[in-house]
Amino acid sequence: MIAPIAGGPASAQRREELRHNLADVRGRIAAAAAAAGRPADELTLIAVSKNWPASDVALLSGLGVTHFAENREQEARLKVAAVTKYLSGRELDSEVSSAWQPHARDVVPEGDADQIRQPGPAAAPESGPCWHFVGQLQRNKARPVAGWAHWVQSVDRAPLVNALAGGALSYDREIAVCLQVSLDPAGYDTGRGGVHPADILALGDLVAASRGLVLVGVMGVAPRGLPAHPAFARLREVSDMLRREHPDASVISAGMSADFAEAVAEGATHLRIGTALFGPRRGVP
């Protein structure tokens, strides 16, 4: 069963751990921005909360973090429901989990997404956390993701655009979309997802023409085992190309705990930070 959020020493200790980690990350972001000659306030911190409990999201939200990212639909749907109820002051003891346990009885049915969905991306920070989906998304998961995500950062193919747009319309909301770009040196998907840079304009046109979706920019993940800086330089070039056709698509989502300084140097606007905030990654249940 879902354990309640705990008070007392354990909760206070975790709050202090997160407070310390957040202060350290913010300091590192400010230093990276200064080194790149950029103002730190143009950078958005996204806390990657995958595999971490709803209680951690609630604590970081209380410390001023407004953007959170998940990569598995089932885990995210449960977590969003718990955090939403907690932050609205309802059912604190029974709804906010201190550990995510993927048992069937804990899963929020897809039909309940109407109870947790929020307005489109612009209104999200004022009504609770802004939720991002950052994992590789299967077409059959697009509709349930549309019920809770304000942003989907991993759109990399036309069938997914159509499925996500249908989901957004079914919930009468708009979803911000980043096009995930393959940053492999040859421009091909190596298992981490991503559209070939040569295909970015066609995919961007499709998103921009789709009701329920708002094209906001690009996202990329540096290839494993290769220097991050050249990869982020390629992402910036793709972003420039996209913006020539879609000037409002100004987001560059790049950089994680180990490489966000390189991403900032290449114009990243949104940083996806997990380990540096929450600690070493937990094993996937």
Automatic annotation (TrEMBL):
PROSITE patterns reported in the protein's UniProt record: UPF0001
Keywords annotated in UniProt: Pyridoxal phosphate
Modified residues (N6-(pyridoxal phosphate)lysine): K50
Gene3D superfamilies: Alanine racemase
Highest taxon in the source lineage: Bacteria
Single GO term (MF): pyridoxal phosphate binding
Ranges of residues in domain Alanine racemase N-terminal: 44-280
UniProt similarity note: Belongs to the pyridoxal phosphate-binding protein YggS/PROSC family.
Function: Pyridoxal 5'-phosphate (PLP)-binding protein, which is involved in PLP homeostasis.
Protein's name in the database: Pyridoxal phosphate homeostasis protein
Species: Candidatus Protofrankia californiensis
